[in-house]
Write a structure and sequence with these properties.
Elements lengths: L5 E7 L5 E5 H7 L14 H10 L3 E4 L3 E5 L10 E2 L13 H19 L12 E2 L9 E3 L6 E6 L5 E6 L3 E2 L3 H17 L4 E7 L1 E2 L1 H8 L4 E5 L18
Parallel strand pairs: 1-4, 9-11, 10-12, 11-13
Antiparallel strand pairs: 1-2, 3-4, 3-5, 6-8, 7-8, 8-9
Length: about 240
């Protein structure tokens, strides 16, 4: 069984020296840095996603996961995990911040409504393994899968959810996940990939044309107000 990785917050000190701190302990001592709505009672994996959504840089070695506050430079000997969005140097606008907050809701909605959603032409259900782990945030050696699902024939579907737009490098991430599922779970069954985002980059669309078994889906969030049927001045 693979040894669990160490979760470390890396802080750059005077002179460029970087100090390492156990993630949960550091967050207990600096609660202002906790992601909104989270505490150190959350799992390390949940905190990882929350910090990433809050703009922290996350880098990984074979045995450690390093967390860098937005203003802290990364270690030189760590391998960077791909960012969730294109790195164009621009700050997040209000709409993108809202989309960050919706990511978990999007995941919960899709996971809870799989049987009623048509994905890649199939009705799916969450995968559940022999240890009774379901397919939400399914842990693998290549990272947690947002959603792992199966169809009625037992074929696998790896769903990768993006916050606002799907960058072309999401394809490489998805292919790694698909490769792991094919090697460790599929046992000869088909493995499909699905990227879900509010909109897709043109480069990602071209990449999908060259990769069999990958589907791109764009989601919409609709919100409207309706008359409650009670006008001011009416008697109660």
């Amino acid at each position: 069984m693979e040894a669990p990785k160490r979760y470390l917050v890396d802080i750059e000190e005077a002179g460029g020296k970087v100090s390492n701190h156990a993630m949960k302990q550091w967050l207990r001592e600096h609660p202002a840095f906790l992601p909104k709505g989270m505490t150190t009672d959350n799992t390390s994996r949940e905190l990882k996603r929350g910090l990433r959504n809050a703009g922290w840089r996350i880098e990984e070695t074979e045995s450690e996961i390093h967390f860098f506050p937005p203003s802290t430079a990364p270690l030189s000997n760590a391998v960077a995990i791909e960012d969730e969005s294109e790195d164009d140097g621009s700050a997040l606008d209000t709409e993108e911040v809202l989309e960050f907050s919706l990511e978990k809701h999007l995941q919960q909605f899709i996971a809870g409504n799989l049987p009623s959603l048509l994905i890649a032409g199939k009705r799916l259900r969450l995968y559940r393994d022999s240890e009774n782990r379901d397919g939400v945030e399914y842990q693998t050696a290549t990272g947690p899968l947002d959603i792992l699902a199966v169809d009625d024939a037992g074929n696998f579907y790896v769903l990768e959810l993006k916050l606002s737009h799907g960058p072309d490098k999401a394809m490489g991430q998805l292919m790694r996940y698909m490769g792991w599922v094919r090697q460790h779970l599929a046992n000869g069954r088909e493995v499909h990939g699905v990227i879900v985002a509010k909109n897709m980059s043109e480069r990602l669309r071209y990449a999908a044309l060259a990769v069999p078994g990958v589907t791109l889906l764009e989601y919409e969030v609709n919100f409207k107000l309706k008359d409650a049927g009670f006008n001011v001045g009416e008697a109660v």
